[in-house]
């Protein structure tokens, strides 16, 4: 292990502490934007699939995907986007915590995990019906 691999703990002044807090808040806002996007994809995909199931409408002609398949893809992309966002958020917060003392907790990650679990449940419900 070289000297470059050892994390350096900085002892910031008040202005730097405020800058770190603003950066952490920006990471949280970004995470919440991803949660909002993932939730939208999951709910719209699930709603589309359920609407076509309940309406019993026959698709005029299969273009590329039928609405059920399109809904499955949207729910899957929503879950994937939440997963990628959580990993990226974790990396950002961890790098911030390494440079400046203190481990940061994130409520947005908890919300993203709950919504991803609901998305997985919706995906299984859709696959079970298909």
Q: Number of folding domains?
A: 1
Total number of strands: 0
Number of alpha- plus pi-helical segments: 3
Outline: elongated
User: What is the radius of gyration computed over CA atoms, rounded to a whole number of angstroms?
Assistant: 21 Å
State the low-pLDDT regions, or none.
Answer: none
Distance between the termini: 54 Å
* Range of helix content: over 70%
- Overall average residue pLDDT: 83
Could you walk me through the main structural features you see in this protein, from its secondary elements to its overall organization?
The protein has one domain. The protein contains 3 helices and no strands. It has helices at about 15-55, 65-100, 105-130. Helix 2 packs antiparallel against helix 3. The protein is elongated and about 65 Å long. The N and C termini lie far apart (about 55 Å). The mean pLDDT is about 85.
What is the secondary structure topology, with strand pairs?
Blueprint: H1 14-55, H2 67-99, H3 107-129
Which key terms come to mind for this protein?
130 residues, mainly alpha
Briefly characterize the structure.
With 130 residues, this protein is mostly helical.
């Amino acid at each position: 292990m070289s000297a470059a691999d050892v994390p350096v703990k900085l002892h910031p002044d008040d202005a730097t502490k405020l800058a770190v807090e603003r950066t952490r808040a920006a990471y949280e806002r970004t995470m919440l934007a991803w949660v909002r996007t993932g939730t939208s994809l999951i709910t719209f995909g699930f709603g589309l699939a359920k609407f076509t199931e309940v309406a019993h409408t026959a698709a005029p002609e299969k273009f590329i995907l039928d609405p059920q398949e399109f809904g499955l893809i949207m729910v899957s992309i929503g879950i994937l986007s939440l997963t990628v966002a959580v990993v990226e958020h974790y990396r950002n917060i961890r790098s911030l915590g390494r440079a400046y003392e203190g481990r940061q907790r994130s409520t947005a990650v908890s919300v993203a995990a709950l919504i991803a679990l609901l998305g997985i449940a919706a995906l299984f419900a859709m696959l079970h019906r298909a």
